[in-house]
Design a protein that fits this description.
Helix content: 40-55%
Number of strands: 7
Strand content: 5-15%
Radius of gyration: 18 Å
Shape: globular
CATH topology of the domain at 52-81 and 153-278: Glycerol-3-phosphate (1)-acyltransferase
Number of helices: 9
Amino acid sequence: MNNPETNRREFLSPYSDAARSLFYFRIKGILSRIFGRLRCDVEGLEHVPQSGPAILTMNHTGWEEILCAILIVPRPMRIIGIRELMYLDDPVGRARIFDSAYGRGFGPVRRGLTILLGNALGGVIRRWLREFGFIPARVFTPAWPPLLGSNGWRETVAALAAGELVLLFPEGGYKRDGVMRPFKPGLGMLVRWLNRRHLDVPIVPIAQRTAGCVSWTLGHRYTPRLVFGPPLTFTFDGGNRRAFDERVARTVQDRIDALLRRAWPDAPPQTYRLAVRST
């Protein structure tokens, strides 16, 4: 039986920029037709650079914001996501998803469908995700501790050094109710890695309200809204790395929180500041 783990290197080999861009726009066209009735309300899209690298960061409430970003951002994006999505045909990969904040709430039906889909289409999904520009990062839980080099940062740095857009979700998880988790300090670490390579990459903060906007008929229950803010830049001049990382994460999250009042005026109160102070 073919084990996906033995073929990992094959599926992680890079595709050419031209081939990936062509495949990206092909998939974007398909999504545009499937979700043709979905209309997004967008503010500040001009803050996304027309060329050169940028990190797009947004609050995370599910999958709809990824769809909306693909449909409205004119440039191809590399998207950082759960590595295990590439290995749905592997029992270990599925177990890691089910044990994560993403999959812990899956009921029996959803778990069963995930297993059936993974066994039937795991190889196809794996290949398509990589061709699309997906950057895999492992799920970390108490039962599945981090592994060196498994968070996707090296590939992210390479993509940004090549002038690409990268979309990431610094919360490291999602909440459908719109209450943000504290941003992970890894965003600051990424900035330091880029600075070491003499790259001052702008971070574009994005606030969104999209959770539940897509109906079962692929129309929209309400008009989703995304608000893009002016880019932020940070430079690490030495000193306390942990303090710098936390400052970057907090500054970006505060900016997204401010934008969220325009994207989601009736969003519940944010509690991430209390969570940060209590740690």
